[in-house]
Amino acid sequence: MKERSYVESAKVAGASDARIVLRHLLPNVLPLSFVYLAQDAAIAIITEASLAYLGLSDFTAHSWGIMLHDVQAQGYVFTAWWWLLPPGIAITLVAASFYFIGFSMEDVANPQRGENRWR
Q1: Which of 21, 39, 24 is nearest to 105 (CA)?
Q2: Per residue, what are the HEC states of 43-70?
Q3: pTM for the whole thing?
Q4: Phi-psi category of 63—alpha, beta or left, where left has phi over 0 and alpha has psi -120 to 50?
Q5: Helix residue ranges, H only, 1-119
Q6: Residue 77: phi, psi to the nearest 5?
């Protein structure tokens, strides 16, 4: 971004570094940072649930991965499958919602790139 022509023009015009960052760079970078934040939140949820399922997290904390681990450890995967569905569906829905929010924010942040995605 700092190599773009409008930043070079602002430097030539005598704008300070703080003004260039606040006025030219930040408004263009901020929407993209929200996109990456939303997508990273989904990755963090899946990672935490995976580590909890494997037993590599705090077993005293409440987690969907620990719920899945407990069902599997007790041997109720096939006999009491209704204990397995709520945490699995919750992980899937929350992670998918963060991904969809990220994709929607990307379309808002960069409309030229996202217009052909859904066709």
Answers
A1: 39
A2: HHHHHHHHHHHCCCCCCCCCCHHHHHHH
A3: 0.71
A4: beta
A5: 5-13, 17-20, 26-53, 64-74, 85-109, 111-114
A6: -65, -45
Rg of the chain over all Cα atoms, to the nearest angstrom: 22
Q: What type of residue sits at position 4? A: R
Q: How confident is the model at residue 8 (pLDDT cuts 50, 70, 90)?
A: confident
Q: Which two tokens mark 98?
A: 């963060």
Q: Which two tokens stand for residue 37?
A: 């934040």
Other CB atoms within 10 Å distance of the CB of residue 23: 14
What is the Cα–Cα distance from 87 to 43, expressed in whole angstroms? 16
- Looking at residue 118, what is its pLDDT? 54
